[in-house]
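RECORD TYPE: inverse folding
INPUT: structure tokens
STRUCTURE:
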């Protein structure tokens, strides 16, 4: 691909890298950190593919200086990370000064290297002690308290803050499909959780703005591009149902609109849960929206009784027209443009940041270096889509690669490597892969041509 041009709009374009707290931090109970639902989930036999956990991960809490220096060396000026709620508040929901101090030191280090922080308040590591988790309406109010604490303690140093990362995963993978913490298997519960998550988002935005009205605030979603497996009306309807669950469920509340009827029918006791006034709280004006894109999905009419409740079944890509990554996801760069265009035709969106894009490419080290060609190709082709969207006038202001480091890939444990930097978990040695060097050279040319 050509040099990445940053000059299609009046806004400077951010090329950054992303991580999340539980996936890299380790230090699971240092400095008064309390357990998260992921700490507990990892202890349950059979939940994590390699029976691993996040207790050590990339030891980022110990090694953050080295990691920030590495980012700077690679040329990054923007870093997206998440704050661990159970690290900064104790089991009585009081501030934990030692945990807050870690993020203050991290922000000092980033500032010293001229790297702008882009923070997310919640990337799935919910404090384990909150009764009922996201099934309890009270959790939304506790989240607003937490947001306000961060606004007070760190707000003046955080120009851009997202409330939630991918609430679809917290709600549906966590409460319906049992693959994420806390491991529930109940369709209606997933919708209850989704509602409480969006309520938490709205309450947190209000709480933050009461302290610090100048922060740029938004949310990070992972909208799904769902193609029908065939042109049959049944498959088309299934693809639409999948999009309603994955997209409308989160975009509707952001604009104060009720869920589409087929979704509302899936929640039991909707009236008690979706109280009058809730949608107004969810629909706070936003300064940006973060979109995470990895792949697309293909839907058919439901094939099992469980899927009948959901209204669709996802099937593997037909004909293998596109290659698959090591985690089995189809490489479909056009999907990035298609999903942005589809969303913009449905909703009026604030400026967009692509807050995650990346690939599981498990290529290892060979004679001290890592030639992750699949990742290089993937990043080039997806950046080209971003470039094209911007050329067409779409207001996309940034692209963050997932991820800076190989890390704990949730239910896959450490079996999947998403990093542009290789991590040897036995020694914690970091080695930039070919993809990191590719981005380094793109950033160099971009800054030289700006
Ligand atoms: C996400 C995730 C990351 C994952 C990545 C790869 O927000 O989906 O933030 O935590 O590691 O998506 O699956």
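DESIGNED SEQUENCE:
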């Amino acid at each position: 691909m050509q040099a990445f041009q940053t000059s299609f709009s009046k806004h400077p374009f951010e090329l950054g890298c992303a991580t999340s707290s539980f996936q890299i931090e380790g230090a699971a109970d240092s400095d008064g950190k309390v357990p998260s639902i992921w700490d507990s989930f990892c202890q349950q036999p059979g939940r994590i593919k390699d029976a691993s956990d996040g207790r050590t991960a990339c030891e980022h809490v110990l090694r953050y200086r080295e990691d920030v220096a590495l980012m700077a060396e690679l040329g990054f000026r923007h870093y997206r990370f998440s704050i661990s709620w159970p690290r900064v508040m104790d089991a009585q929901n009081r501030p934990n000064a030692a945990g807050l101090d870690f993020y203050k030191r991290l922000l000092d280090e980033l500032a010293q290297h001229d790297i702008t922080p882009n923070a997310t308040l919640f990337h799935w590591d919910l404090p384990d002690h909150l009764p009922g988790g996201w099934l309890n309406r009270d959790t939304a109010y506790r989240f607003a308290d937490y947001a306000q604490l961060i606004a007070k303690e760190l707000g003046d140093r955080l120009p851009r803050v997202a409330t939630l990362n991918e609430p679809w995963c917290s709600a549906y993978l966590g409460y319906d499909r049992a693959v994420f913490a806390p491991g529930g298997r109940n369709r209606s519960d997933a919708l209850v959780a989704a509602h409480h998550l969006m309520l938490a988002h709205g309450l947190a935005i209000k709480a933050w703005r009461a302290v610090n009205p100048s922060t740029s605030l938004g949310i990070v979603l992972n909208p799904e591009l769902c193609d029908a497996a065939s042109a049959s009306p049944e498959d088309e309807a299934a693809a639409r149902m999948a999009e309603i669950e994955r997209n409308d469920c989160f975009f509707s509340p952001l604009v104060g609109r009720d869920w589409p009827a087929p979704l509302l029918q899936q929640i039991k006791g909707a009236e008690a849960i979706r109280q009058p006034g809730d949608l107004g709280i969810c629909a706070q004006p936003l300064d940006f929206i973060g979109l995470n894109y990895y792949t697309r999905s293909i839907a058919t009419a439901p094939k099992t009784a469980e899927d009948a409740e959901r209204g669709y079944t996802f099937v593997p890509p037909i004909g293998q027209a596109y290659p698959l990554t090591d985690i089995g996801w189809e490489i479909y760069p056009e999907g990035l443009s298609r999903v942005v265009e589809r969303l913009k035709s449905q909703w009026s969106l604030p400026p967009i940041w692509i807050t995650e894009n990346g690939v599981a490419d498990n290529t290892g080290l060979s004679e001290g270096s890592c030639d992750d060609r699949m990742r290089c190709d993937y990043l080039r082709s997806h950046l080209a889509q971003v470039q094209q969207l911007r050329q067409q006038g779409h207001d996309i202001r940034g692209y963050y690669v997932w991820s800076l480091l190989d890390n704990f890939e949730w239910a896959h444990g450490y079996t999947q490597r998403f990093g542009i930097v290789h991590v040897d978990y036995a020694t914690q040695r970091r080695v930039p892969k070919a993809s990191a060097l590719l981005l380094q050279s793109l950033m160099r040319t971009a800054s030289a041509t700006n």
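NOTES: Residues 20, 23, 165-166, 222, 292, 356, 402, 409, 418 surround D-gluconic acid (CB under 6 Å).
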